[in-house]
Amino acid sequence: AGGSESDNWALKAAAECFKDKGNHIITTKIEHHAILHTCEWLEKHGYEVTYLDVDSNGLVDIDEFCAAIKDTTIIASIMYANNEIGTIEPIKELGAAAHSKGVIFHTDAVQAFAHIPVNVKDMNIDMLSASGHKFHGP
């Protein structure tokens, strides 16, 4: 579907465009399969992926996120609203942390886009995945 392809292209495009900077990607263990499968594919092609744990509410710990960033980190991808448990991640803060280290920030906002206000500039989002079928699009 559109959201899955958007996730796939966001990660692969960032990996290809910034391969001279590094080969490290950060995500979580509870991402949508579109992110997880793409990360697995990237690992098979020489990229290193850190899969962050989440707390009992499904939230990413900002300190753990910051600690995971390396000099070789090129992109971090954290889902805005989880499609299974409904957790809404602190995207603005995660994006700011990524930017403070020169890391591109992507969010899979497929579940959030039509239901929660999204402002990519204010929320420190460089790349956002959405899918038209979630808000009556084709």
Write the layout of secondary structure elements.
Blueprint: H1 2-17, E1 24-28, H2 33-44, E2 48-52, H3 62-68, E3 73-77, H4 91-100, E4 104-108, E5 127-129
Parallel strand pairs: 1-2, 1-3, 3-4, 4-5
CATH architecture descriptor text: 3-Layer(aba) Sandwich
Judging from the principal axes of the Cα atoms, what is the shape?
A: globular
Q: Based on DSSP secondary structure assignment, what is the total number of beta strands? A: 5
Structural class: alpha/beta
How many structurally independent domains? 1
Low-confidence sequence ranges: none
Largest sheet: spatial strand order:
2-1-3-4-5
In percent terms, what proportion of residues is strand? 15-25%
- How large is the count of helical segments? 4
Rg estimate, integer Å: 14 Å
Summarize the structure.
The chain has helices spanning 2-17, 33-44, 62-68, 91-100; strands at 24-28, 48-52, 73-77, 104-108, 127-129. With 138 residues, it is of the alpha/beta class.
Report what the structure shows.
It is a single chain. Helix 1 (2-17) runs parallel beside helix 2 (33-44). 33% of the residues lie in helices and 17% in strands. A 5-stranded parallel beta sheet has the order 2-1-3-4-5, with helices on both faces. By secondary structure, the protein is an alpha/beta fold. It has a single domain (17-135), classed as 3-Layer(aba) Sandwich (Aspartate Aminotransferase, domain 2), CATH 3.40.640.10. 39% of the residues are buried.
